[in-house]
Amino acid sequence: MLFKEVLKEQQRIRVYIEKARYGKLKTIIEGIDEKEFDLEDIAKKLKAKLACGGTVKKGRIELQGDHRERVKKLLGDLGFSEELIEVE
């Protein structure tokens, strides 16, 4: 259990937005090790807190809408180091 906490604090996470179809925005979260962490579970928690839709594709979490600022705090609440979360 302790190993996982240390691993969480060492994850370099990148949060940025992409344009989806029809000019809509989606927030992309990448850099979380999918072998060590359940991305589906993390995505589920983020979607509930942000009241938005989303999915996990190609080892990254995609959330509907621009949630860059709130995602950093929420990932911090989940135990990831906020210093290593890069928001673009």
Summarize this structure briefly:
The protein is of the alpha+beta class and 88 residues long. It has helices at residues 2-10, 39-50, 68-77, and strands at 13-19, 25-30, 54-57, 60-64, 85-87.
Describe this structure in words.
The chain has helices spanning 2-10, 39-50, 68-77, and strands spanning 13-19, 25-30, 54-57, 60-64, 85-87. By secondary structure, the protein is an alpha+beta fold. A hairpin with a 5-residue loop joins strand 1 and strand 2 (25-30). The longest helix has 12 residues, at 39-50. The chain is globular and about 40 Å long. It starts with a helix and ends with a strand.
Largest sheet: 5 strands, mixed
Radius of gyration: 12 Å
Share of residues in strands = 25-35%
Report the end-to-end length measured between terminal Cα atoms.
31 Å
* Classification by helices and strands: alpha+beta
Annotation field: number of helices: 3
SSE string, helices as H and strands as E? HEEHEEHE
Number of strands: 5
Name the average pLDDT.
Answer: 88
Helical amount among residues, as a percent range?
A: 25-40%
Low-confidence stretches: none
Q: What is the overall shape?
A: globular
Strand order of the largest sheet: 3-4-2-1-5
